[in-house]
Amino acid sequence: MKMKIYEQNIRIRFGHCDPAGIVYHPQYFIILNQLMEDFYRDVAGVGFIEVKKYGLGFPVAGVRCDFAAPSRVGDECTARVWIEKLGETSIRFAFTIHAGDELRLQCTETCVCVTADENDRLVKAAMPAKLREALEPYLADATVKPLQLRA
């Protein structure tokens, strides 16, 4: 089975941009977070709030990001996400944002599956089998190289 890539069209809006008229870099993280929210809902059938019903959370443990070219108000971009690594308690996602053939951003984000212990501290937890099964089609196969980030 060929791996899947989740894809979404993104329009760069005035509110994403700084006074120079290009995307202010923290706004990319908001865009990526919205993409992840849709990915979890569309792929795993569970949104960020619903996952709490299972006593789980997926906080971000690390991010690496390269801003390859500026995006401006009105740009029509395509955001893509897939999984570079699916561990027992963690997931490393890969993201790209393109405008046409031009790479604008590439990023990896590692999330950890956690639950709260009796003292309400977050501790690593095994990912539920149902969630793992939903995510596996998005796991990079041998034909996909990990993103080569400068950062």
Please explain how this structure is put together:
The longest helix has 20 residues. The mean pLDDT is 94. The chain is built from two helices and seven strands; from the N terminus they run E-H-E-E-E-E-E-E-H. It has a single domain, classed as Hotdog Thioesterase (Thiol Ester Dehydrase, Chain A, Roll), CATH 3.10.129. With 151 residues, it is an alpha+beta fold. The strands form two sheets. A five-stranded antiparallel β-sheet has the order 1-3-4-5-2, covered by helices on one side.
Keywords, separated by commas or semicolons:
Thiol Ester Dehydrase, Chain A, 5-stranded antiparallel sheet, alpha+beta, two-stranded antiparallel sheet, 151 residues, 18% helix
Tell me the structural class: alpha+beta
- At the first level of CATH, the class is Alpha Beta
The count of strands amounts to: 7
Q: If you average the pLDDT, what whole number results?
A: 94
Q: Going across the biggest sheet, name each strand in turn.
A: 1-3-4-5-2
In one word, what is the shape?
A: globular
**Which fold name corresponds to the CATH topology?**
Thiol Ester Dehydrase, Chain A
The low-confidence runs, each spanning 5 or more residues with pLDDT under 50, are: none
The ordered string of helix (H) and strand (E) elements is EHEEEEEEH
Q: Please, how many domains?
A: 1
Strand content: 25-35%
Cα(first) to Cα(last) distance is 32 Å
